[in-house]
Structure formats: structure tokens, C-alpha cells
Amino acid sequence: RCRATGSRRMAADKRAARLGVLALVGMLLFGLVGARLWFLQTVEQEALQAEVDTTKLRTVPLLPERGRIFDAEGRILADNDRVLTVGVDWEVIRNSDNRAEIFRRLSGWVDVPVEEMEARFESQVYSPFLPMPVAEDIDERTAIALQERVEDLPGVEILEQSRRVYPYAPLASHVIGYMGRITAETKDFYQGKGYYLNERVGQFGIELSMEEELHGKWGYVTYEVDNASRIVREVRRVPPINGNDVQLTIDLDQQQFAEQALETKLRERQRQVAINPRDPEKNFEELVFPEYPREVPYKAPAGSVVVQNYQNGQIIALASYPTFDNRWFEADLGGGKFDELFPSVDANGDPIDPDESILVNRAIQGRYNLGSTFKPFVAFAALDTGLMGINDYYRDEGSYRMESVEDDKCNDGLVRCVYRNATCSGTGRPCVYGSVDVETALAVSSDAFFYRIGETIMTENDYQPILQEEVRKFGFGSDPGIDLPYAFDGTVPDAELKAEYGERGVISESEASGYFTGDNVQLAIGQGLLSASPLQLAMGYSTIANKGYLMKPEIIKAVYEPGVPDSAVQGYADITQARLAREPNVAGEIIRQLPLAQESWDEIDRGLSRVITGPGTTSDFYHSTTGENLFYYYRGTSGAIPIAGKTGTAQGAGNYPWNDSSAFAAYSRDPSRPYTVSAYLEKAGYGSQAAGPVVKCMFMQMSGLTRADPVQLSDALDPNSTVAAPPRELADTRCYDGRFSNVRTIE
């Protein structure tokens, strides 16, 4: 019995111990709960209250109105129009079943397939703070009908938004640009700047380059809502700040004429032929290119025109062809329609010919050899370095043999040693110009004269890149600085560029092994690996025109505070009522000054003037200058702006004549009308046959000698059109005419 009693006592002791442990644990738990309650009620009170308050508030962003774009005369190039958009609250469509049903009900009303709505939901490019848009630009009747059916369409809202309109489209579309949605590729960039993903932003042209000025700042309104998300009251409202209005230096009168003159000449050249020459080395009995017929049509697919004020750098016109109507990007195109208007592949599914690319601003993105239009800059290099003086002459015998290459290498054909002038039409052989100085060499475009500069400026300066340094002073090979996106820097060939091209497989390893005198000889006549845009060509000629000031190309004339009012004249803003957001630099910005003796500038100017006026040279017979026949009537016309300029023909692929591109640049010699014009027409033949007439027409129009069509507001966009832009041609083409016409037209 004693053992049993002891066992009961031990069991009781264990139970008491367990109860004590449980009591201790309970006390600890109650203590922790109490401490947590104290912490939440004291330390965390304000934060928790703020969280509760936040769940009762809803903030709705307020969209700023985008700034407008005007031309130099106040024409409204880009404006805003009110549109109605159907949106759906994200919370309502999170559930897949709810989403499917709402999309099904909406589809018939807004004529948008359910699959397209679902694709928008999955795209992750729309802001989670704004309703997801399912259809834009609906009519008032549909909007009212949807609002009357809110019980059947929970979460559906009608949003009042704006759409970009371009009243003068397709004029200056490459300059103005267009809008588009923020893409998956750009959303991080724009979110970092505070944008909402539903927004449309600039994608090209001024719309892109001036995006931040045009955009403005978002406002917002904060509402208190109940448990059912119904608005109880407005808590706070911060109005948006609209975007600034931007005025361009572009004059739509000049812009329209430039576009028409360019397109008309390109279409004309497409009806003309290049001659497959007979080979003088074979007694003119065989064609140089026997695999082709005697006459081959010019392709003439594209081109550009630039007009600049050389005193302040302002860009007056910037034309590029092929062009497009930027209203298409506000037309909510389906994929099939967009591909029809802006194809990326041809009928066989292959990438389209780059010559036919539409969304390329060739005036600033073109990558071209400049041909003989580059020679004035080489003449500058010779005069600036002391390689030649204004009274130094060279005897042009029709060809140039390099002096720095040994005879055995020349004789073995390892190195090209002999470079010939262009062929004279009267003899079928290289032209012979006789004794020429800088002035005359520019006037008649003596290749041999400039071949010699290309070699000797290198050999007499210890093979240093002196020519490259000199021509870079005019802006070649660097960012031109214009306020437009994607401007091409260009290339000035040197050893580094050749090595880079060799690594990329652009040229062979042997070609990339070094920079040779032969490369410099090619550079001296604007060929080889030299590349530049028509804008850079215009900048260079403007620098010659103003005697040494390289001006930044300005395309922004002024930036105004939001809300410049409309004028009483339809299509215009009242600039007299505008308030500047910042002071414009009306004098322009000088990138650099090129010091050169006045007599040397005058030598270059006289040579370029003779291109227009003559005379040429007499050696074996009279050689006219490259432009005197074209400008025969122009230079004798009262009121015509006196000009100086230079033709250029850039050799194309295979050295086929029908692949030659046409270039011409000229400037006014009248400081009261300080214009520079450059034109480049791809695969359109000699400089005097294609680009030259376009530049001549521009100067005739600016002289008041050629009638320009009045600039008019656009007709409505034709949604059934199958072209990116309708043809825009000159009504009167007599401004193209020179003294002679020696081209044959395709029958």
C-alpha cells in the first residue's frame, strides 16, 4: 500500500509541474499579445491609420493637353481633337470569367473582337491606375448607349481623351513626326519619367524630339470612396499643366514647294534612261557593260532637299521622299492595313528594297557619297594648310598618276595608280582641262586636280590624317546637332574606320589592313568610305557662304507657354498673343569658326560662282562648267538671286551609270536673302540633270520667279487609300529647264 500511495503522489507532482509550465507559457503568450497590441496602438498607430485612409481614397490622373506645333508663319501643324474612349476598370476584369463576359457584351457595341480586347489585357503596356481602353474614338451615340447600360456593363467607363490631328498633312510629315503607344521596349524609360502606360507619345520627328516640352505635367483628383468603391466626396484636385507650344523654323510655303519639286523630278527621271557607254579601250565597238542593254532606265527611287538660312542656321525646308501621311498613325490601323501602307517585306516575303523605305527622313538620315559637291571642302583643306595658294596651277591632262607608289607595284597591278577624269560626251574619253587653279578646278570639276591634293596632302604631311581633320571642321563625321531624332553623324574615312569596317565584314581584311594614299585620293573627290547627309552638305555650303561660321542647324524657332490662341484665319495660331516659355536664340548658335584668309574664301566663292555663270576652259576644245547650261536663262533673269554652287555625281554600285546618284548644293550671294539649298536624288544620274534642276527651281521660287501653289488645309484622310501619301507634283515644271536637253525619254 505504501508503494501505491507513493505512485499517486508522484503522478500528482508531474501534473502540477505540467500545469505550471502551461501557465507560464500562457502568461508569455498573453504578454506577447499585449505587447503587440500596445505596439500597434502606439508606435504603429499613425502608419496603420494612413493605410486605412488610403484604402478609402482613390486617385484618378488628369491628362494634360499636349502642346501644339506651328510653322514659321503660325500655321497649326499639329493640334488636338476631343475623342471618346471606352475603358474598363481593372478590378472588374481581374477574374477571367467576368472579363470574358464583359468583353463579349462590349464587342458588338464597339466593333472590337474579343480576342483584341484580351490581347490588350495581356499586353502589360497599359497603366494599372487608369481604366484599360478597349476602343478609341467612338461616336457620341454609342457612348450614350453604353452609359445607359451600366448595370449590364459593370466597370465600363466613357473617357474623354484627345487625339493628335495634323491639319496640313501630309506636308512635312518627316519633320513633324507622329504619335504612338508606349511599347514594351520603351515602358521602363517612360515610367522612369513619370508617364502612365496608357499614354501616346512621340515616335518620330518633332513629336519625339520635343516630347517633354509638348507633353506637359499630369494632374490628379483624389476621391473618398465607400466599400462599394462609390465616390463619397472629392478630397483634393491638382489640375494638369498643359504642354508648351512649339514653333518651327519650317516655312510651309517653301516646304511644300520643295516636296513637289523633289517628287516631280524623281518621277521624271524614272521615265528617262542612262546610256551604257561604248568602251574606248575596244575602239568603241563593245559596250562597257555588255550584260546590259544600251539604254537602262533610272530607278530614281528617293531623295531629299534642305533649305537653310546660312546667317542663323535656321532650317526653312526639309523634304524627304518617299513620304507619308502622318494621320495614318491616328487612324487605329489594323495590322493588314498598316503593312499595306508601310510594307517591310515584298510580295515574295523578302525584306523590301531599302530604296523604297518610307519611314526614313533622308534629309538627315541619308548616308551618301557626295561626289564632286565635296570638292570645295578639299579646296579649303589645300588652302588652309598651305599645300596650295590661290595663284598655284596644275596641268590637267585628263588623268592623274600617283607619285608615291613604286613603278613595279603599278605595273604589276597590285595598286591602282592611275585615276581618270569623268568622260567627255564629245570624245568618249576623259576630259582634258589644261592649266587650272583652285577657282577653275571647281568651275569645271577637274578630278585630276583634286586627286593630286588627296595624295600630296597626305605624303607631304608624314601620312597624317590632315585632310580628315580639315573637312571635319565643316561638321562631317559628327552629330549635326539638329533637334530631330536619328540624325546621321556621317563618316570621314581613316585607318580606324577601315579597321572597324573590316571587323564587321563591310570590307575585306586586306582593305582594312591600313589607310593608304589611294583611299585619300578617293576621299578628295567625295567617294570611297565618305558618307554624309544632305543636311550636313547644306551646313558645309552655308559655312562657305558666310565665310567660315559653322552654324548649328536650328529647327525650333520658339517655345511658348501653353495655350497660344487660334487666329481668326482658319488653320493659323495667333502668334502675336503668345508668351515665350524661354528666350529664343534668334542669331543662331555658332558651332565653330573656320579661320581662313579672305582671299582664299573668295577663291572658293569665285570657283563656285563660275559653276553657275561660266566661263569654262579651253584646252583641246571649250569645256563648259558643270552648271552654266542649266542656269543659262536663270542668271540673265532680272530679280533672280545670284548664287554659287557645285554639281556632284556619286558613283553607285558596280559603277553602272544608272546607279549614279545626283547631288547639287548652292548658296545665295545676296546677304539679304541668305539661303543655302542642297538636293540629293538617289540613282537619278548626273548632278546637273536631276538635283541641279531641283535646286534651281527652289531659288527661282524664292526669287519670286516661279509660282508656288498656295498651302491649303488637307482634305479628309481616305481610309480606302492604298498609298502612304498621294502624289504631290509641281503644276508648272518650266523651272527645271536649262539651255539644252540631252536626255532621252522612255517611249
Considering the chains and any ligands shown, give keywords for the structure.
single chain; 747 residues; alpha+beta; seven-stranded mixed sheet; five-stranded antiparallel sheet; elongated; disordered C terminus
What does this structure look like?
By secondary structure, the chain is α+β, with helices and mostly antiparallel strands. Helices cover 31% and strands 19% of the residues. The chain contains 22 helices and 27 strands. Strands 2, 3, 4, 5, 10, 20 and 21 form a 7-stranded mixed beta sheet that branches. A 5-stranded antiparallel beta sheet has the order 14-13-27-26-25, sandwiched between helices. A hairpin with a 5-residue loop joins strand 2 (69-70) and strand 3. Helix 10 runs antiparallel to helix 22. It is elongated, with a radius of gyration of 36 Å. Mean pLDDT is 90; it is low at 740-747.
Structural class: alpha+beta
Give Rg in angstroms: 36 Å
Give me the count of strands: 27
* Terminal CA distance: 137 Å
pLDDT averaged residue by residue: 90
- Mass-distribution shape: elongated
Relative helix content: 25-40%
| Discrete helix count | 22
What does the largest sheet look like? 7 strands, mixed
Strand content: 15-25%
Oligomeric state of the chains? single chain
Which residue ranges are poorly predicted, with pLDDT under 50 across at least 5 consecutive positions?
A: 740-747
